[in-house]
Write a structure and sequence with these properties.
Layout: H1 2-24, E1 31-50, E2 55-76, E3 81-92, E4 95-97, E5 103-121, E6 124-141, E7 144-164, E8 167-182, H2 184-189, E9 194-211
Antiparallel strand pairs: 1-2, 1-9, 2-3, 3-5, 4-5, 5-6, 6-7, 7-8, 8-9
Length: 212
């Protein structure tokens, strides 16, 4: 019993040193990775209607469950800074009713982004990202279904941390802007002179990366 207690005490005393050695013999946040992500996504459309005398705004929004995957590469610029590039694809559940007969849903989204991060400690990274985004919107009613691909930009920030030697987890927020459509037929129907529909998105996701 005394020998066992002595061994346990020796291992407990040595564990911080062993952990430090394990972190010290590798360079974190460097090289290729592939992973998956899950989270929440809210798509917003804002109708801006201009009449001869005033301007009005009507907002629509829908929440859904977001899912997808990513691959990328990180470059360790210095002990404190990381530069990375990432490609991702995602989808989401749910949609919104534009009227009693028409439904708007969101299809796949592609992102191509770069990020810059600051290394807080050996296993933690605080970062910001930005780049190109392309998404698909679908409108369906009794007459059929049409879809439109929209390109735009996305920016975000997050925190990533190693949870195993070659596995890291992250939590991230992103905002995306997919531009505007001019809808003259809506303006005419509502008695206006111009109608624009803006497309925006908020997303909060948690992800895991496997590093090589």
């Amino acid at each position: 019993m005394k020998t066992l207690l002595t061994l346990v005490a020796a291992l407990a005393a040595a564990s911080p040193v062993l952990a430090q050695d394990a972190a010290g013999d590798r360079q974190t946040f460097s090289g290729p990775f592939v992973g998956a992500q899950l989270g929440w996504q809210q798509d917003r459309q804002t109708l801006n209607l201009q009449t001869l005398n005033s301007t009005s705004r009507t907002s629509l929004k829908s929440d859904g469950f977001a899912y997808g995957g990513q691959l990328g590469y990180d470059f360790r610029l210095s002990p404190s800074w990381v530069l990375g590039a990432e490609l991702s694809v995602s989808g989401r559940t749910g949609g919104e009713n534009l009227d009693a007969a028409t439904r708007l849903t969101t299809g796949r989204t592609f992102n191509a982004t770069g990020r810059i991060g600051y290394v807080l400690d050996a296993d933690g990274l605080l970062y910001a990202r930005g780049g190109y985004a392309n998404t698909q919107y679908r409108v369906s009613n009794a007459g059929g279904r049409t879809s439109e691909d929209r390109g735009g930009w996305t920016v975000g920030a997050g925190y990533e941390r190693y949870i195993l030697r070659n596995v890291s987890a992250r939590l991230e927020y992103n905002y995306s802007d997919f531009g505007s459509d001019n809808l003259p037929f809506i303006a005419t129907a509502l008695g206006g002179v111009r109608a624009d529909l803006d497309y925006r998105r908020h997303a909060v996701t948690a992800g895991i990366n496997f590093r090589f």
